[in-house]
Amino acid sequence: MSTVVKNAAWAVIWNEALRRHEYARGIDLAFDGSTITHVGKDYRGQAEHVIDGRGVMVMPGLINTHTHPWSEALNKGFAEDFGNPALGFMAMYDWMPGWIISPRSCLVAASVAYAELLKSGTTTIIDNSPIYEGWIDMAARSGMRSYLGPAMASAGWTRTDASSYGYKWKEDDGAQAFETAMAAIDAAETHPAGTLSGIVF
Questions:
Q1: What is the pLDDT of residues 9-64, one digit of tens each?
Q2: Dihedrals φ, ψ of 166, to 5°?
Q3: Would you tell me the crossing angle of helices 135-142 and 175-189 to the nearest 10 degrees?
Q4: Residues 157/167, Cβ–Cβ less than 8 Å
Q5: C-alpha angle with apex 44: 41 to 46, nearest 5 degrees?
Q6: Is 132 helix (H, G, I), strand (E, B) or coil?
Q7: Digit-coded pLDDT (tens) for 77-125
Q8: How far apart are the first and last CA of the chain?
Q9: Are 132 and 181 in contact (CB under 8 A)?
Q10: Are strands 155-161 and 62-67 parallel, antiparallel or unpaired?
Q11: pLDDT at 99
């Protein structure tokens, strides 16, 4: 379906002559499906759908290279309110993530986080999460280009006293966790959506 955003207040456009992005005003942006057909002033072609661009910025999608959608929608404000004073009010080693982990809470939190990311202009993310039921399909349904980073580790955190922490090493040094992570990456990369890839986290 052909669409045009008419008279966008601001646009981030590519200047081919100067080989750089720049800001422009009063721009029309036309696209058909996933193909941009016009960027510039005074679009005169046909469009099935017209969007009033006054008060709108059009720009390339943002790339967010570090996200934790599975937890952060639930964690907002928690670390600041209940963190450990001996660790700079960080709650990561004391309280997180034990109070929120369940397959259902991960999926709900991530669904909210993906919606927030999309609303803020993000179109590509690296999603660093534990593997949970529904993760890959939810990422595919979002329409974002998602690099899923299934969490794996050779050790887990353990508190040694009120103001420090250490590691409890796994007997196999994380070999099974790595194998599980790689299987999740394979599942993402073979998903029919075609928008998913993987990265070890």
A1: 999 999 999 999 999 999 999 999 889 999 999 899 989 999 999 999 999 999 99
A2: -140, -160
A3: 40
A4: yes
A5: 130
A6: coil
A7: 666 666 677 777 766 666 555 555 677 889 999 999 999 999 999 999 9
A8: 38
A9: no
A10: unpaired
A11: 54
Place of tokens 């029309």: 28
Report how far residue 201's alpha carbon sits from residue 180's, in angstroms, rounded to the nearest whole number.
12
Q: In whole angstroms, what is the distance from residue 137 CA to residue 193 CA?
A: 9
Amino acid at 195: T
Count of all residues that appear for the chain in the document:
201
109 neighbors 68 (Cβ within 8 angstroms):
no
Residue type, 60: P
Burial (CB < 10 A; 0-12, 13-18, 19+), residue 172, is exposed
- 3-state SS, residue 145: strand
Q: Could you give the C-alpha distances from 172 to 6, 146, 152, 159, in angstroms and in order?
A: 59, 30, 12, 21
Residue with tokens 């029919």: 192
Interior/surface letters 100-129, b for 16+ CB within 10 angstroms, e for the rest: beeeebbbbbbbebbeebeeeebbbbbbbb
Lowest mean pLDDT among 74-78, 142-146, 156-160, 189-193: 74-78
- Of 16, 67, 8, the closest CA to residue 40 belongs to 8
Q: How far is CA 193 from the centre of its chain?
A: 16
| Inter-CA distances, 4 with 29, 177, 181, 188, Å | 5, 48, 42, 33
